[in-house]
Amino acid sequence: MIPIKGYATFHQLKHCLLGKHFTSDYFARHVSIPKVLDPLKRIADETEEDFQKLDSILKEHGVTTYRPEFDENNFNLFEEPHPPVTPRDHYAVVGETIYGTDGHRGMYDSVFKNINPQNTFIRDWEGSDQGSLLTTANICRVGKDIFWDYLVNDPSRFSNSNVEEIKSKWESEGFRVHISHRGYHSDGSFCVVKPGLIVTLGDVQD
């Protein structure tokens, strides 16, 4: 089973879930115009090269990597907006639980079947404007402190009970939860490199 544990981004990385894009064959089956097809195939091939390079670098440093397997032949663009390229946009590991709230689990079934269900918190809140409520794009973990940012775009579709359910769960596990509503990706704005050092694009102290 894949071990689930994450308390701080500056701890030694031991396990990492990488994404996966369409192969160039996928576009060859669906696009016939060369001026459109050729760039798409190049993007697909270069994206896979990047993933393989990242995978190699991580393994060189002793990290065990995992990648989702999905059947691109049966991929439905009406049900899924894109392939499982960015796990970070759909999941967050907090403590010894992996969280996801946007209904994208189907593309990651090959991974989740190797995770103990007791270490998962999976909800489908996509239709409630809270599909991206729990991702490491907007959650910063620093030991027992969790800095959690989310934006209420449409109050009529937002359920505070979902927030309270998660917040109460974390607090019951001993975490201190700090909530903000800046509405941007925290991991693209600041990084806690180590205790006492934050690299940031601007003033995020308030």
Structure description:
With 206 residues, this protein is of the alpha/beta class. It has helices at 24-30, 34-60, 109-112, 160-172; strands at residues 15-17, 64-66, 91-94, 97-100, 120-122, 139-142, 145-149, 176-180, 190-194, 197-200. Strands 3-4-5 form a 3-stranded mixed sheet, with no helix packed on it. Strands 6-7-8 form a 3-stranded mixed sheet, covered by helices on one side. The longest helix is centred in the N-terminal third of the chain and has 27 residues, at 34-60. The N and C termini lie far apart (41 Å). The model has no long low-confidence stretch (mean pLDDT 88).
Provide a concise account of the structure shown.
The chain has helices spanning about 25-30, 35-60, 110, 160-170; strands spanning about 15, 65, 90-95, 95-100, 120, 140, 145-150, 175-180, 190-195, 195-200.
Q: Helicity level, as a percent range?
A: 10-25%
> Rounded to an integer, what's the Rg over CA atoms?
18 Å
How many DSSP helices?
4
- Spatial separation of the terminal alpha carbons: 41 Å
Task: Give the overall silhouette.
Answer: globular
Mean pLDDT: 88
Topology, number of strands: 10
**Beta-strand content bin:** 15-25%
Low-confidence segments: none
* Order of adjacent strands in the largest pleated sheet: 3-4-5
Largest sheet descriptor:
3 strands, mixed
Secondary-structure element series: EHHEEEHEEEHEEE
Q: SS-based structural class?
A: alpha/beta
